[in-house]
């Protein structure tokens, strides 16, 4: 994972995980959330990484594990500590970075992974 906020490029390597989505916090400058998966999202678990950008580089603030790959992440519009992730099992997870355990809640409405298809018009 690399960030380029404020002109500096920083890298955080997390062995065994591949990042799929990253979003800076709208509330806390330098805080970044990254949804990651094992084995390129084909199989394995997922991890939500919360990273702080500090003068000396990137520091892992907190991480949360999930039993399927995580492919998307977004911050809450109402709470600086709350995030939502989407996973390959079709569920959404609600996380609170102020708590070490999670998720707060799981929404399971889909029975399979949603595959986004891009169509090229010629």
TrEMBL record:
Read off the InterPro entries from this record. Answer: PEX7, WD40/YVTN_repeat-like_dom_sf, WD40_repeat_dom_sf, WD40_rpt
> GO cellular component terms?
cytosol; peroxisomal matrix
Please name the GO terms of the biological process aspect recorded for this protein, alphabetically. Answer: protein import into peroxisome matrix
Top-level lineage group: Eukaryota
Q: Subcellular location, in the record's words?
A: Cytoplasm, Cytosol; Peroxisome matrix
Which PANTHER family does UniProt cross-reference here? PEROXISOMAL TARGETING SIGNAL 2 RECEPTOR
Q: What is this protein called?
A: Peroxin-7
Q: Which organism is it from?
A: Propithecus coquereli
């Amino acid at each position: 994972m690399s960030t380029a906020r404020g002109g500096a490029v920083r890298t955080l390597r997390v062995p065994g995980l591949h990042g799929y989505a990253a979003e800076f916090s709208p509330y806390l400058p330098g805080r970044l959330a990254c949804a990651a998966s094992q084995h390129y999202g084909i199989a394995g678990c997922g991890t939500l990484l919360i990273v702080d950008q500090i003068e000396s580089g990137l520091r892992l603030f907190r991480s949360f594990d999930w039993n399927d790959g995580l492919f998307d992440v977004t911050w809450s519009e109402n709470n600086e500590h709350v995030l939502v992730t989407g996973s390959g099992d079709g569920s959404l997870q609600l996380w609170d970075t102020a708590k070490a355990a999670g998720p707060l809640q799981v929404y399971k409405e889909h029975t399979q992974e949603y595959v986004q298809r891009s169509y090229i018009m010629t």
